[in-house]
Design brief:
single chain, 407 residues, alpha/beta, Rossmann fold, 2 domains, eight-stranded mixed beta sheet
């Protein structure tokens, strides 16, 4: 089978969408399938083209056996709604045009969160008369309304109509949570064409390891208890909560809060931490996919947090599974399906989103109860097997096979 996959993010970008797509596609190639990925030049999240790449109309490379075609897009940082929309639209046009020249395709996949990529995939699949599979990682545009980036308006309602159009036209839909499946069914989408393939962990990369001694020395964290957030610093993540928890913990000299990543709120968070006089907070810019596990290794507990809103009860952050793979206990400030996973597997503690006092209390518990932390670490490694990316890639491949049989 020849799979044509359109995605706005792909390695060397290191965000969750890029990792999921790459890890699935790599395993499909290993299983004997051909995979072509159409994507943009790597630039997320700072809106700066990565070294070794040029933002031009067409460039091609092979990554782990995957044919990767990179096209021109309007490059902008992950901030500013209008500019990001123009970025999305530019990839929709250039990505669709490039995909039309890919021959011998059996199925076309378009992935969210923003659905303009899926629009391109639907268009290409229609012209090639091939099945269109819509991978829904986020209920967009509902998510941009949930974080306050867009109010109810004619434009928002127009986006919602496009969203429903894509759901109806997709041969199959792949969601990453059961809650998203239920939401789509409640909105009239046929449940018979929806498959659920959760996020997971590449256990060949994310596995238990000792704390990196060189990194501990470099960051002056030897002998410290490190609570860390690794990921995008965006509007959806409400990381002000983490800073406020750090302020509560200023009386704990051993405790340090580390925030690694970039995003629209990064600089504002830096300024807020300075204004609060937080000497127990360390900010680190994004690192490469190869280097990120060094930083995971020095964490005693991982903080995962999203804004308190009904929509995010349908979200399972992918970093939860990476923590499991590395045996890092979790402090989860996300309600819903993600909280159920943490509680059922006993891999950490759940706290109410946007509650600094409860987050600080959770950090203190891991600091003062090492036996509890050790038990959580052990349960992480047991649970990780269930979310092994190899198994999940096989499930999604099954969904693609079903799509080819329906046309």
């Amino acid at each position: 089978m020849h799979i044509l996959f359109l995605t706005d993010n792909f390695p060397p970008e290191v965000n969750a969408p890029a990792s999921r797509t790459h890890e699935h596609c790599r395993r499909w190639v290993e299983a004997g399938h051909r995979v072509t990925v159409v994507t943009g030049v790597p630039n997320f999240p700072k809106g700066r083209v990565f070294d070794g790449y040029t933002n031009k109309c067409w460039q091609q490379e092979v990554v782990d056996g995957i044919r990767v075609i990179r096209v021109w897009t309007y490059v902008t940082a992950n901030e500013g709604f209008a500019r990001r929309i123009f970025d999305y639209l530019s990839f929709m046009v250039s990505g669709a045009f490039a995909a039309l020249f890919v021959r011998g395709v059996d199925v076309v996949v378009g992935t969210s969160p923003q659905f303009f990529t899926a629009c391109a995939a639907w268009f290409v699949a229609g012209l090639k008369r091939r099945p269109f599979v819509f991978e829904v990682r986020d209920l967009w545009p509902e998510s941009i309304k949930a974080v306050g980036a867009m109010r109810d308006s004619f434009a928002l309602r127009a986006l919602e109509r496009i969203e429903m159009f894509l759901y109806r036209r997709a041969t199959r839909i792949v969601t990453v949570t059961e809650a998203s499946r239920r939401t789509l069914e409640a909105r009239g989408v046929a449940g018979s064409k929806i498959d659920v393939v959760t996020n997971g962990v590449d256990m060949s990369r994310f596995s238990p390891r000792s704390k990196d001694p060189a990194l501990l020395r470099e960051l002056q964290l030897e002998g410290k208890f490190v609570a860390g957030y690794v990921g995008t610093h965006g509007m959806a993540h409400a990381l002000e909560t983490v800073l406020q928890a750090a302020q509560i913990l200023k009386s704990e000299p051993r405790t340090v809060v580390l925030l690694l990543g970039d995003g629209a709120r990064k600089e504002a968070l830096r300024r807020e931490a300075e204004a609060m006089g937080l000497t127990n907070v360390i900010f680190i810019d994004s690192v490469s996919k190869e280097a990120v596990t060094r930083y995971w290794s020095i964490l005693d507990v991982s903080i995962i947090h999203l804004r308190r809103t009904e929509l995010f009860t349908t979200v399972i952050p992918s970093k939860l599974f990476e923590c499991m793979g590395m045996g890092i206990p979790v402090l989860l400030g996300v309600a819903g399906e993600a909280a159920q996973i943490v509680e059922e597997h006993g891999v950490g503690l759940v706290f109410e989103p946007e509650s600094p006092s409860l987050l600080a209390a959770g950090i203190r518990r891991f600091l003062t109860q090492p036996q509890f932390a050790a038990e959580c670490r052990s349960r992480c490694l047991v649970a990780a097997v269930e979310y092994d990316r190899s198994r999940l890639a096989g499930l999604m491949l099954g969904a693609l096979h079903k799509a080819t049989l329906q046309t």
